[in-house]
Design a protein that fits this description.
The complex is a heterodimer of chains A (about 280) and B (about 290). In chain A, strands 3, 5, 6, 7, 8, 9 and 10 form a 7-stranded mixed β-sheet that branches. Chain A has a 3-stranded antiparallel β-sheet with strand order 2-1-4, with helices on one face. Chain A has about 280 residues and is of the alpha/beta class. Chain A folds into 2 domains: about 190 residues, Rossmann fold (3-Layer(aba) Sandwich); about 80 residues, no CATH class. In chain A, about 35% of the residues lie in helices and about 25% in strands. In chain A, about 40% of the residues are buried. Chain B has 2 domains: about 35 residues; about 190 residues, Orthogonal Bundle (MetI-like fold), CATH 1.10.3720. Helices cover about 75% and strands about 0% of the residues of chain B. Chain B contains 13 helices and no strands. In chain B, helix 8 packs across helix 10 and helix 11 packs across helix 12. The longest helix of chain B has about 30 residues. The two termini of chain B are about 35 Å apart. Classes of the chains: A alpha/beta (about 280), B mainly alpha (about 290). At the A-B interface, strand 5 and helix 2 of A face helix 9 and helix 10 of B.
């Protein structure tokens, strides 16, 4: 195993419900992610996987425990962690190009940086870079002047990934990023993300409620689940998906997939876990 | 016309729609003309429902007569070209006076919008101001008018303060709510793209809510005018509402009616201007 890159250390999350009663969402969650891994986190709706992602992102604070990124705690979202949510992933008031260049522009020139002559000198280069990312995502240059509203859901997510990747984040966090897309688009997007991961080597944490998506995308699949009497979730399964079981198209072979399913089902049986299998293999 | 004209699925033709949409205007004018005519048979000098000749005289007075009769010799004034007379006329000077107050009020809405946005985005600012502004919002602005007159005198300041007290709490709270409705993903996204607090506030959140804020101000144009007119009618030396109140004393309906129409037209144009500006500035915005 390579060096530890991100460590989730004994995370507990409780929410206050109506003031007094608290609801435990995550309890004693430990997870170590290495650099370059593609970790797919899945589990049923409401098991706390999105909460976990938001904690890694820094958008939410755990009740106890901590998240260390390269050994440091980072209290709020920053430019080292890219984020692609399911919805509202783009700024509706900016064109595709402005959405992609927003990050580098803000970082380098700040709030009023647009007014400086230096910005105008480097703008052409910034645009060239953005066009590069746009092409990499399979978008046309003619789309660059459109507003997010005028794009399909799949195209919006392509732009959102470009917007995040242009910052060259240490980790890319994707929260149900393709869950609102139709199956065909979803398949294309999965292929795109796998290709990007192979090309850029970015560490990715991908949350999905779809097991087949998790198994296809991840080099490692982490299943969160609740044991029936317990209201809070923990890691019930953590498996590597080695490249050796994948077909040339990237999908795991049928037999390997079945083996993996059985493994997850066994884990579920053993721990009396509430885990929906319906979507597996879809 | 088909027998189904009053049904939900009726499809009125172009001509029908045209006639129907203008019918109430025509009926209103006809009814007024009839009333005016009958009153003038009884009393040829009736001022309550002026006829066309009287109205024409009133409009001419409004656009050509100087605001203060004392300053300018009528004979000398009549000799000047019409455009010079227009710019010294009472309609023009009243419009300028009212517009100045209106512009000041609009200008003071800018800090209101900025405050509302900060309240919605920065929890500490929100906690600090929200309760007070909710309280302030419930004060009937006209009820503090006497206090304003005592505190600020009866000059311009108290009139502008009346508008500010009457409208800004609404605008602040509305901007606050609009800011709250911006998805949290957008803020997080801003941070992950290297923006700092003010970058998120002014480059992401403010830009997103701005078209809705402008629409909210458009809806509040009437309260703004209402407070402006209240101030002008009670204590003023000029202004559109001052003139209307003054003309009431002389029963000069032939001036009041054109003034009312003029104010309506001005307000319509301001609203239209803001609408067009909103479209031009925010081509991405879809009203829903």
């Amino acid at each position: 195993m390579r060096d530890e890159f991100i460590r989730l250390d004994d995370l507990c999350v409780e929410y206050n419900v109506h003031g007094h009663a608290s609801k435990k969402v995550l309890e004693h969650l430990d997870l170590t992610i290495c650099e370059g891994q593609f970790v797919a986190v899945c589990g049923q709706t409401g098991c706390g996987k999105s909460t976990m992602l938001r904690i890694v992102l820094g958008a939410e604070r755990p009740t106890s425990g901590r998240v260390l990124i390269e050994g440091r705690e980072l209290p709020r979202p920053d430019r080292h962690r890219g984020y692609v949510p399911q919805k509202y992933s783009l700024f509706p008031d900016k064109t595709v190009l402005d959405n992609i260049t927003f990050g580098p522009e803000m970082e380098e020139f700040g709030l009023l940086g647009r007014l400086t002559p230096r910005f105008f000198r480097s703008r052409a280069e910034l645009r060239r870079t953005a066009f590069g990312y746009l092409r990499q995502m399979g978008l046309q240059e003619s789309d660059s002047g459109k507003y997010p509203d005028q794009l399909s859901g799949g195209m919006q997510q392509r732009v959102a990934i470009a917007q995040a990747l242009i910052m060259k984040p240490k980790i890319l966090l994707m929260d149900e990023a393709f869950s609102a897309l139709d199956p065909a688009t979803r398949g294309d997007m999965q292929k795109l993300v796998r290709r990007l991961w192979r090309e850029t080597g970015t560490t990715i944490l991908f949350v999905t409620h779809n097991l087949s998506e998790a198994v296809y995308l991840g080099t490692r699949v982490v299943v969160l689940g609740k044991e029936s009497p317990e209201p809070s979730a923990r890691v019930v399964l953590d498996v590597e998906v080695p490249d050796s079981i994948r077909n040339p198209d990237g999908y795991p072979r049928r037999d390997a997939l079945d083996g993996l399913t059985r493994k997850i089902e066994d884990a579920a049986m053993e721990g009396r876990l509430e885990l929906e299998m319906a979507e597996f293999g879809g | 016309m088909s027998p189904g004209i009053f049904r939900i699925d009726a499809r009125p033709g172009k001509m029908t729609a045209f006639v129907l949409s203008w019918f109430l205007f025509a009926a209103g004018i006809a009814l007024y003309m009839h009333a005016s005519h009958t009153r003038h048979i009884e009393n040829p000098d009736d001022k309550v429902a002026p006829n066309l000749t009287q109205l024409a005289q009133g409009i001419t007075d409004a656009v050509l007569k100087p605001a203060d009769d004392d300053d300018i010799d009528p004979a000398a004034n009549a000799a000047k070209p019409w455009y010079e007379r227009f710019f010294t006329s009472m309609l023009w000077s009243d419009t300028v006076a009212s517009s100045k107050r209106f512009a000041w009020a609009m200008l003071l809405l800018v800090p209101a919008v900025v405050l509302g946005m900060h309240m919605g985005l920065f929890p500490v600012v929100g906690v600090f101001f929200l309760r007070f502004i909710l309280f302030f919002d419930k004060i009937i602005a006209l009820s503090v008018l006497p206090i304003l007159f005592i505190a600020f005198g009866i000059d311009e300041l108290s009139k502008i303060m009346l508008i500010v007290i009457g409208v800004t709490p609404t605008i602040i709270l509305d901007t606050f709510n609009l800011t709250k409705s911006v998805p949290p993903e957008q803020v997080v996204k801003g941070f992950t793209l290297g923006a700092r607090d003010f970058g998120v506030a002014y480059r992401i959140v403010l830009r997103q809510i701005l078209p809705r804020v402008i629409n909210s101000i458009r809806l509040n144009l009437k309260p703004i005018m209402l407070f402006l007119f209240a101030g002008e009618m009670i204590a003023s030396q000029n202004g559109l509402a001052f003139r209307i109140a003054l003309m009431r004393r002389n029963m000069a309906m032939n001036v009041i009616i054109p003034y009312v129409m003029w104010v309506a037209l001005l307000l319509f144009l301001v609203d239209l201007g803001m609408h067009v500006l909103n479209r031009k500035l925010h081509p991405w915005f879809r009203e829903s």
